[in-house]
Amino acid sequence: MAQADLLFYNIGQLLTMDNGSDGPVKGNDMQKLPVIENAAVAVKDGKVLKVGKQEELADIDADEKIDCGGKLVSPGLVEPHTHLVFGGSREHEMALKQQGVPYLEILEKGGGILSTVRATRETPFKDLVEKAMFHLDRMMSYGITTMEAKSGYGLDYDTEMKQMQVVKHVKNLTSMDIVSTFLGAHAIPEELKDNPERFLDEMIDMLPEIKEKELAEFVDIFCETGVFSVEQSRAYLEKAKEAGFQVKIHADEIDPLGGAELAADVGAITGDHLVGASDKGIRRLAEEGVIAVLLPGTSFYLCKGKHARARKMIESGVAVALSTDFNPGSSVTENLQMIMSLAALNLKMTPEEIWNAVTVNSAYAINRGDSAGKIAAGRKADIVIWDAPNYLYIPYHYGVNHVQKVFKAGEKVYE
Ligand code: NIG
Ligand code: FE
Fold it and tell me: Where does Fe(3+) bind (predicted)?
């Protein structure tokens, strides 16, 4: 009889997401969902030892046995796009939004991202750590066990470094796996508003030090009207690649500028948002294997009534991932389950596509496809027990937290 540390048994539906192949799940394959009914999972030394039908694990004894009550069990969710570290908040912008003031106009007048930049510059390191931990713990309570975190509320050397150091520090305080992205090119700071080229040069000058100190794995840019043009973004991302980074783009979020085409041209790992992506842009994403990270919470929260064309992307063979875009302005939520509901209602994604998008594909979107997003022998035991009878139930019953227990590397981190 083999001995495990932990045995999850009486699992009604187990989403292993173990599709037997490497790489993100593309296009119509997203409709396939690896599910085992009446399943069990054994864990040893923080890793999955065996997965299968309950009777297939009858030869395994365990120090601790967890009765899953016939409910749904899945891998820990993977959140591939957040702006985790920031000072202050922007609740006063809600009234402006209700009056119909556009997001980009608020930014142009020194509000929006720039108001968070002022707050982040003023907030001491330890307070940023505390605040980041607060939001991160909430994400974990919603079932997220691996996430990405961007900088981008500093827009100067000191504060961008401070944000990335906060992420590095937070990694020591949590069992959440965090992947860091440098988003220095998130807006043009007020002090350089007439000289964006000089600002971008300053950000480019930071790249070797960020690389050397391993402060970020990805470089991202906000390619948007009034922020950075397609040509500025292209030149910037080429420099980032030369400095050894993989790149991401906030692309076609508000205006359709050709951000999707740019993501394909520069070989970005992901194009994010893509609300205004053109037919050609979507075709190019499929051709180059760029993962589309869709953020339906942002479309919902910006009240534009326009949504990313997920159906067209999937039909075209693109791999789609989903994210909260958690940030203090355009999407103020840590609840990825709510995003799953919005993806169903507004992006018309099926439950099967949605589960692929918040596990396997979101893991590949942050280069963690080998370690996160699946329950399979040898992988870290990142496991969520849901208070739900089946996988359809999570997008269906919206706005609440269905998580019963979260395990990270075999340790219970939320109940
Ligand atoms: O992904 N669009 C740029 N960045 C964020 C919003 C940041 C903010 O408003 O503070 C986004 O939507
Ligand atoms: Fe974002």
Answer: 81, 83, 250, 325
